[in-house]
Specification:
The chain is built from eleven helices and 20 strands. It has 399 residues and is of the alpha+beta class. The chain has two domains: 189 residues, Vaccinia Virus protein VP39 (Rossmann fold), CATH 3.40.50; 98 residues, no CATH class. The strands form four sheets. It has a ten-stranded mixed sheet, with helices on both faces. The termini are far apart.
Amino acid sequence: MGNLHSDVIRGHVKELTKQLRGTGVIKTKQVGRAFSRVERHKLLESFYLEDEGGEFESAGRRLTKRDFDAQNPDPELLKVIYSKRALLTRINPPSSTSQPPLVAYMLELLKLQNGMNVLEIGAGTGYNAALMQEVVGRTGHITTIDIQEEVVEQTRRLLKASGYGGIKVIAADGGEGFSENAPYDRIIATVGCPDISFRWVEQLADGGFMLIPLQHGAEGFDPLVRIWKEGERLLGRFVGDSGFMSIQGELAIEQRPNFEDLARLPSREPTTVYPLFGICKEINAFREKRQWSQFLSCLLFMAILGDKKAFYGDAFYGGFWDGQKGAILVRKDGVALYGDESLFRDLRSLNQQWEELGRPELSDWRLEFLPRDRVPEIGEGESGWVTERKFSREIVRLT
């Protein structure tokens, strides 16, 4: 029976790796080899699945908890584990293992090499840490931090049992980093971050970079930002899209709107539904054609210039939220207003600016980060906007 289980599991691992290669998220031999070696099911003991009759609730969804025994795996649960799905492993406070396509996508963006020293913020189940350990090899080092002590205890135990006992799993506030093992060639966060930590900056090696899902709108709208030091400056670029549950600890903020707010929006009756126009038509078209970079560019523009909480979801294609005025959604059938009519005028104004600025794409933005006590300088005639964060000021410029 043991050999039969091994053959089935190897088949699942091989098939998932093949699918990720086929969709193009795995690009390099190193990342492909890591996915072919790390067995995701060995790092799970339970998770939650959507179920209308489930006894648990999270972000407007009913869930059922499923226990899992890696030594005697349920064949149906194995299919779920080796699918492309994110799996929620704890509810309050939340924890999860991310979607394998997103994990692979971020690993490729990290450009890890043999022997590198890496810090991960957000340990989760340890799946990403194990994959990174495979890429950096025996001479490389992985440190992963999680604020939840129960998560750390379980992850440390399961990683050791899976052959990854060399990974250092720390119970601490991720915003503090871990200075003992610094400097780091790479720092990666696998949680949505409303801000960066300047402790990460201090612990980053010269020539290294950070890959941070940096919130630019509502909860879960976390464009991936590559951040590096250049002399005395801290610079960044948008490099992709992601959506994560929010970080806990010192970097956390009160999320408005949060996942629960967004889940409830589509069930309400809109004040008015306007015809689609301009940027709204583009958002629809980009999502329908799965042109994710262009889709993200539209929403990011709304978040940066609109001074609103831009967002997107499964039941609608995008929109933004104003704490005083309400919300406006871009849907397939039109622009749905939930609140004050001035939101529609704001959206039209954003559309005009988007056209005048040449429909900026992700590669057109340049970022710089300053401590909150530093006054940002934007040159005369320069297109630049400042986002005030908890500890930093982010200056966003157009080339």
